[in-house]
Amino acid sequence: MNPVRLLAGFPVCATLLLSFCLAPAAHAQTSILGFTPASAAHEAEIETKFKSIPTPGEERRQHRIFTAEPHVAGSKRNNELADYIAGEWRKQGLDEVVIRQYDVYGTNPKSASLEMIAPVHYQAVLREAPLDADADSKNPAISGAWSGMSISGEVTAPVVYAHSGNPEDYDLLRKNGIDVKGKIVLVRYSNPYSYRGFKALTAQREGAAAILIYSDPQEDGYKKGNVDPDGPWGPEYHIQRGAITYDFMVPGDPLTPGWASVPGAKRIPIEQATSAPKIMALPLSWHDAKPLLENMDGAVAPADWQGGLPIQYHLGGERVKVHLKIEMENGTQPYYVVEGRIRGAELPDEWVVLGNHRDAWVFGGVDPSSGTASMMELTRALGQLAKQGMRPRRTVVVCSWDGEEVGLTGSTEWGEQFVDDLRAKAVAYINVDEATSGPNLHGEAVASLAPMLVEASRSLQDPSGKSLYDAWKASVESEKRGVRSTDKVTDASLADTRIGSGSDHTVFLNFVGMPVIGLGFEGDYGVYHSAYDDFYWMNHFGDPGYRYHTLMSQLWGVTALRLANADLLPFDFASYASNVRQFVDELTKGNDKDMSQLDLSVVGKDIDAFEASGNRLNDSLRRKLASDAIDPKLAVTLNHGMMQVERNWLNPDGIPGRPWFKHILYGARFTYAHLELPGLTEAVEAKDWATAKQQAEILQRALANNTRLLDELNADLTQR
Ligand SMILES: [Zn+2]
Predict the structure, then answer these.
(1) Is there a contact between 401 and 356 (Cβ–Cβ < 8 Å)?
(2) Burial of 90 by CB count in 10 Å (0-12 exposed, 13-18 middle, 19+ buried)?
(3) Distance (Å, rounded) from C-alpha 378 to C-alpha 639?
(4) Is-above-0.90 flag for pTM?
(5) Closest to 606 measured CA to CA, from 616, 614, 598
(6) pLDDT tens per residue across span 677-689
(7) Which of 99, 285, 656, 705 holds its CA 20 to 30 A away from the CA of 633?
(8) How many C-beta atoms lie closer than 10 Å to residue 420's C-beta?
(9) Rounded-to-5 percentages of helix, strand, coil across the chain
(10) How many angstroms is it from 151 CA to the middle of ligand 1?
């Protein structure tokens, strides 16, 4: 769906929005999806004021506060930062600022040691070396190597190199006569990308005694380019910390799957928690992995298993023996979510929800403090507008999440606690995790919100001097060239509408049934989850002028304001339909030979009907908006009807085997990778045709329900 098509009915096209910003407001004419011409002119005025408030200087000042000390989930410093945010928000003019406590099963390191005892002795450092150029890297509060949610234990065993630690890697080891039962597997990060928790689960299923996960220079180190402090890539000693929680099964507190960890809530024993790992895990720098790798015997590893170190990688098996000891302090502890809002002036019970996580593995220069700084400037700007009498029409709720890094914990508990309110009131959720690691916008959105996100990017200016829209398009085009794709980048393909997991949008999309948007600027970034992801790195490589932080505050805010102020919510369901059709086509093509077992042509007809209704509704909405006269009661009916569409994609039973994940269009693989039509796709891939048929019927029912709903809304619109 081309969003420009939707704009055709308006007197002036959206590309004039920029020139409008320079023109006197009184003569303004503009068009914005979801706004009447009069409200669009007013909205443009508000946005111009809003965009003028965030400054690079303030972004940098806030970023310094959040990156001054390590602040992992559950730590004193992270809790102090919660108080700091609450205090700032009150000063900035946010309403009803509260800190919500969840008592969750948390994870903390006590000690870890790794010693190679044969064929030669080597004591792993398990710490990052300080860099002369970077004073923060000398902070004694920096943790050593640890994996969140590892179990405690002690083992002496041989080491096997299992490449990325994916199931097919163990198949290859088996073909080479190597059984990893009782052994320690050494795997590397991200080749191809897969969430470390999936590597841990796979090792656990294979019967390994422990898993060591190291950063190979081929993925994020010197093979990519200059390393910190001379470049953005990971140096010899960088350690990618991270949790191994099985939150792809169910996120949040492992002891309260599906309900909130409020005081007095029922809790299951940890032994019964499906998301709690049952294996020891430890991350390593390549400095610590190299002695193990270069001493291994066994067959030479295949070409695609070779890495960036100047050695020949072997499969290992018997020769290298290590003694590994990990002591953890896992147990119940409080996590704190800070919640504030700008109460809506006209529709306080319709919410646009924004969020960013606060907890970091160490300083969190990019992840998440770039997002936290952008959030603080966003809230300052919203507060300032409210003080000047420019409250949004709907309520904007802003949250600082805790324990995202552990298992999407704070957002999940909050979403579970307020699920009823959210289903009744929430328009959308906009997540910013890593705001900035470079200049390339990655914007993701459920397909119904993709056109409005693309439109919003036209009204912003990129530091390069281009519009953000043009810069975004150029960066997606160069990304496509990088993977030799000849697909043309159109407005309909600009936003990424394939949404996996791995951040705080998950509960809102997959459990509550809210449309979501995720925003971030990306670039070369090799220090993820290490002590080197800090203020120095940001000021030298990520965003030295803090201009992308500022642009993020503007983009996040403009997107939120459009959702908060629209007369009729800017959802495009025809766009949704064409995405669903693409998902079904890809599933059919990808499983070509087998698909004779399952007839999806009937689903195709339902998609056609949904698209036709979406197109009719788009036309009616456009005509109604152009008439500049919308009865407020009708607007409420239409907006609540449109909000219901996303809820209707939920199947209360969830996807087979993972009942918490209820969305039938969007899901995530165990690797966190996006997984469209999750229930149907997993059944087809497993060749479980009975389940696939059931899942196809569930999809058909949802499509039919939503088609009916759109037709009713269209009837409401055309009768009045
Ligand atoms: Zn993050």
Answers:
(1) yes
(2) middle
(3) 25
(4) yes
(5) 614
(6) 999 999 999 999 9
(7) 705
(8) 9
(9) 45, 20, 40
(10) 23
